[in-house]
Amino acid sequence: MSRREDPSGPLHEHAELVREVRARLAAGGSGVSQGSVEKALREVLSARGAAWEQPVLTAQAVAICDELSGFGPLGPLMRDPEVTEVMINPGRDVYVEREGQLRPAGVSLRSEQDVHHLIERVVSPLGLRIDASSPWVDARLEDGSRFHAVVPPVAIGGPVVTIRKFSKTLWKLRDLVRMGCVDDAQARLLAAAVRERRNILVCGGGGTGKTTLLGVLARLVPRPERIVTIEDAAELQLGPRHAVALQTKPANIEGRGEITLRDLVRCAMRMRADRIVVGEVRGPEALDMLQALNSGHAGSMATVHANAPAEALTRLETMALMAAPGLSVAAARRQVGSAVHVIVHLVREPSGRRRVADMAEVRAGAQGPVLRRRRVSAATPSFARVAASAAASPAPAALAARASAAPPNGSCA
Questions:
Q1: Radius of gyration of the chain (CA)
Q2: Beta 200-204 vs 160-164: how paired, if at all?
Q3: pTM, whole model, 2 decimals?
Q4: Read out DSSP for 44-112?
Q5: Residue 384 to residues 191, 341, 389, Cα–Cα distance (Å)
Q6: How many CB atoms lie under 10 A from the CB of residue 392?
């Protein structure tokens, strides 16, 4: 008669169990899956003369599967649709974001070494590396989530991991209206700006929903048009349409082979793109993007970190000047003034709700390098065509009311 073992035994017993299961999988040439792990675990227990009830066996197989090929104790958090962000702090404490609020996750990793192993399990299959000489890494997971890790000596006190999960739902503008992220007037203007091929810059702080809104706007582009997206880690989901996704590449261990955003913006200009969508502008690629917007890629879009529309313009000017030290401030401002038409500013409220706080039009002034920034309205002369188009379009609230099924998550990001 077999004896019943307690699956929640000491840590060293669990580690030994994981090692035995791994060895059996390797000996049998089996890949890591819940089924193969459960079979190997049953064999290990049988060899020990032990047995577990089926629900316990299945739960432990899932946990071991997570540990061998996935996220270990973070596995349930990664599968939880209500969790939008997972963070591991030095000291192995884990926090999550739910409905825009940060909370302790109620789980932790056993040791700092376990955190290092988790990072390696994620980045190694992607051909990436992280160590003391290259102490941070950005990666895109198979499900589209963004994985960022920092290790000592940059991270004081131990490794830090941040995982930004992205909803598999392809949000529509009416969904954002229903959730209170944009109002009817803003939604009409945004849809009209895309339709009238205005260049749009989405700005805001971290975690305000810039990428989500960018994806919503990009999906409003008429399907026959060719879109080229450029990102550090591919996050935008455009659905079935004529789109090409480009992603940067870090240098290899020899310091060679790096492909930057600036390289990809130049590449996109040779790819017969109707519109170029840049996930985030934060460096010298700003100058190349401005030149692309000024040379036949009307209706393009990008995001930038900034606390207000005016600051977004200043950041673009500064980044363009950094890319070309000989460029004058006046020339940089002229480039920005003619390249960017609409700025959408997002904020995240203390409650966790993301919303559009401001929309502004950008125009080059009559004197040349002077920018006049005005709140978008039907009275703005150079925006009259967009405003007229918006007035003729159906109200997003009416569309939302006719939607047959509401999205499962009430967050904009």
A1: 25
A2: unpaired
A3: 0.75
A4: HHHHTTEE--HHHHHHHHHHHHHHHHS-GGGHHHHH-TTEEEEEE-TTSEEEEEETTEEEEEEEE-S-H
A5: 14, 13, 8
A6: 9
Task: Using pLDDT thresholds of 50, 70 and 90, give the confidence band for residue 372.
Answer: very low
Helices (H) and strands (E) in the chain, counts: 14, 16
d(CA 215, CA 202): 11
pLDDT of 143 reads 76
Question: From CA 304, how far away is CA 316, in angstroms rounded?
Answer: 8
Read off the DSSP letter of residue 5: P
Per-residue tokens: 409: 């998550």
User: What residue has token string 């160590």?
Assistant: 131
Q: What would the pLDDT profile of 70-94 be if each residue is shown by its tens digit?
A: 787 888 898 888 898 999 998 878 9
Q: Give the C-alpha distances (Å, rounded to integers) separating 182 from 117, 178, 187, 188, 390.
A: 42, 8, 6, 10, 14
Q: H helices within 269-328, ranges in order?
A: 285-293, 309-323
Instruction: State residue 325's pLDDT score.
Output: 87
Is the predicted pLDDT of residue 399 greater than 80, yes or no? no
φ, ψ (nearest 5 deg) of residue 238: -105, -5
Checking DSSP bridges between strand 93-98 and strand 101-108, what pairing results, if any?
Answer: antiparallel
Question: Based on the number of CB atoms within 10 Å of its own CB, is 31 exposed (0-12), middle (13-18) or buried (19 or more)?
Answer: exposed
The amino acid occupying position 120 is E
Closest by CA position to 304, among listed 279, 336, 277, 329:
279
